[in-house]
Amino acid sequence: VPAAPRETIERPSASAIERAKKKLTDRLGEHRVLVDPEVLEPYSRDYSHGGRFMPDIVVRADSADDVQAVFEIAREGRVWVTPRGLGSGKSGGALPIHGGIVLSMERMSRIKEIDAADMLTVVEPGVITQDMMNAVEKEGLFYPPDPNSLTMCSIGGNVACNAGGPRALKYGVTRAYVLGVEVVLPTGQKMRLGRRTIKGVTGYDVAGIIVGSEGTLGVITEITCRLVPRPIAVETALVSFASLDAASVALTKVLGAGIVPRTLELLDHQALDAVRKKTPGRFPEGAGALIILETDGASKERAFEELERAASVCLEHGALDVLVAQDEVQRQRIWEPRRVLSVTLTESAPKKMSEDIVVPRSKIPEMLRRTQRIADRHRVRVATYGHAGDGNLHVNVLYDASSEDRAERAVAEVMEATVALGGTISGEHGIGLCKREFIALEQPAPLIALQKQLKAVFDPEGILNPGKIFPSRGVRE
Ligand SMILES: Cc1cc2nc3c(=O)[nH]c(=O)nc-3n(C[C@H](O)[C@H](O)[C@H](O)COP(=O)(O)OP(=O)(O)OC[C@H]3O[C@@H](n4cnc5c(N)ncnc54)[C@H](O)[C@@H]3O)c2cc1C
Questions:
Q1: Nearest CA, atom 53, ligand 1
Q2: 53 to each of 9, 41, 46, 250, how far by Cα in Å?
Q3: pLDDT at 227 exceeding the cut of 90
C-alpha cells in the first residue's frame, strides 16, 4: 500500500497575521495581546522533545468572552489557535507548530467556589494544580490527581490531557474528578457540558470527550471538580531492591495480595543514579531499584497497618530494605527527588525522549526486560521510572546528537513492544505532536477516521491546534 500523502498546513500569511494583530489589540487591549518576539519565545516550547515553534501572536485570555473574540478573529483570517496552560506538557500539544495564535489561559486562575456540602470546586482553567489542592485541603477536602508537575501545570492542562500521577493507583486519574466543564468551541459557541451532581447520564457524555482532547476540540474556560474527604493520615516508605526485575515482581505481588497503596512509584538504577548525583546520601547504597510506597486512610493506625502489610510482601519478595518516613520532612525528602526526576534526567544527558507507556501490570517485568534489550541493541541509555502500580512506565531514552537515529529507532521499538504486550502508547501525557506517528500502531484506521470526523464536528474549519494527535501522513485503510 503506498504511503498516504503528507498533510500540508501552511503558516498563516503575513498579511493575515497583521490584520489579526490589529483586530485583537483593538478588541482586547495591548496588555492581553503579545507580539514582541522576546516575549513570545517562552510560548514556543514546552517540556517535550517536540522542538521550538514561534507563535506569531500570544493572547492571554481573562475570560470566556476573550476566547470567543480570539476565535472570531482567527476564523476571519484563517489563523491557527493553539491553547496553552502552563506549558509543562510532555507531548508537544501546546506547541504552535504552524504558527498563528497561542491562546494562553494562565491569567484565568481564579478559584470561584469551594462547596464543602456538595464536595466540589469550580475553578478557572489557569489555576495551578497545587494551589487548587491546597485551597480545598484547607476546607478538609481532597483533590487526588497529583501529576508530579503539580507546581508547574494548570488544572485546565490536566483536564485537557486527562493527567494522572502517583496517586492514580488508588484514586484514578483526572477524568474521575471532572463533573462538568465550560468550553468555547472554535465556532465561537460557549457551552456548559456535564453537571454539578455526582451522578448523571443525560445525553452523550460530551464533557467526557473534552477530557483528554488535548486542546483539539475546544478551549476549557471553567471546570467543576468532584472532591473527596481529605485522608487523615499518610504513611510513606522507600523500599530498595537489588534489581529492577525484583522490584517489578514485588509490586505485582503487593497488588496481588489485595493491598491498594496510594502510590507504588518505581525508579530504575539509571533514574536512581541521576537523583543520587543531585542528592548524595539520600538513597540506600547497593540499591538497583526503588519503590516509593505510600498508603493513606481515615486513621494513622489504618494507614500504617496497610504500609506494614505492603512492606512485608516486598521483603518476602526480595526487598533489601524498607525506610519509613517518621515525619512530614522525611516524607518530602523521599518525594522531592521523584518530583523533579524528569527535569534531573533532562539535565543528565544532551538529549532526552520521554515516553509514558502503559502495559498490563502483569507484563511490567517483561516490558522492562524488552526495553533493556532494545536499549542495548541500539546502544542508547534508558532510564525508566513511573507510576508502575498502574502499569504506567516513563521510559526515557537519553542520547546525544550523534545517536539521534538510534534513539528514534529505540523509541519506535519500545512503542511496538508496548502494543505487542497489550499496552497503550500514552498513559497520561497524551499524543500531541510527539507521538502522533505512533497512534496507528495501536488504533485501526477506521477508529482514527472516526476521531477525525469528531474533530471536524467540533472544529469544522480546522483552525484549532492543527497537526496534533493524528499521523502527519494520514492512514490508509
Ligand atoms: C517534571 C514533570 C512531571 C510531570 N509529571 C506528570 C505526571 O505525573 N502525570 C501527568 O499526567 N503529567 C505529568 N507531566 C506532564 C504535564 O505536566 C501534564 O500533561 C499537564 O497536564 C500539562 O498541564 P499544562 O497546564 O502545563 O498544559 P500545557 O502543557 O500548556 O498544555 C498541554 C495540552 O493541554 C492543552 N490545553 C491546556 N490548557 C487548555 C485549556 N484551558 N483548554 C483546552 N486545552 C488546553 C494544550 O493545547 C496542550 O495540548 C509532567 C511534566 C513535567 C515537566
A1: 88
A2: 14, 9, 10, 44
A3: yes
- Contact at 8 Å (CB) between 376 and 366? no
User: H-type helices in 198-299, by residue range?
Assistant: 206-210, 244-256, 269-278
Q: Which among 381, 369, 430 is positioned nearest to 406, based on CA atoms? A: 381
| Mean pLDDT in residue range 305-313 | 97
Q: Across-strand partners of 190?
A: 184
Select from 43, 84, 127, 338 the residue to mutate for testing ligand 1; criterion: most ligand atoms less than 8 Å from CB: 84
Quick check: 285 pLDDT over 90?
no
**In the predicted model, is pLDDT for residue 477 greater than 60?**
no
Q: Tell me the H-state helices in 89-243.
A: 129-138, 155-161, 168-171, 206-210
Alpha helix (H) residue ranges in 279-431: 300-316, 328-339, 341-348, 364-378, 404-420
CA of 225 to the centre of ligand 1 (A): 17
The Cα–Cα gap between 411 and 135 comes to 40
pTM across the whole model: 0.96
Tell me how crowded residue 53 is: count the other CB atoms within 10 A of its CB. Answer: 21
Work out whether strand 178-184 and strand 141-142 pair parallel, antiparallel, or are unpaired.
unpaired
- In short, whether 164's Cβ falls inside 6 Å of ligand 1 is yes
Q: Is the CB of 50 under 6 A from ligand 1?
A: no
Atom of ligand 1 nearest to the CA of 108: 41
Q: List, in sequence order, every residue forming a beta bridge with 123; answer none if it has no partner.
A: 111, 223
Q: How far apart, in whole angstroms, are the C-alpha atoms of residue 296 and residue 324?
A: 14
How far is residue 467's CA from residue 477's CA, in Å, rounded to a whole number? Answer: 20
Bridge-based pairing state of the strands 141-142 and 228-229: antiparallel
Residue closest via CA to ligand 1's atom 18 equals 89
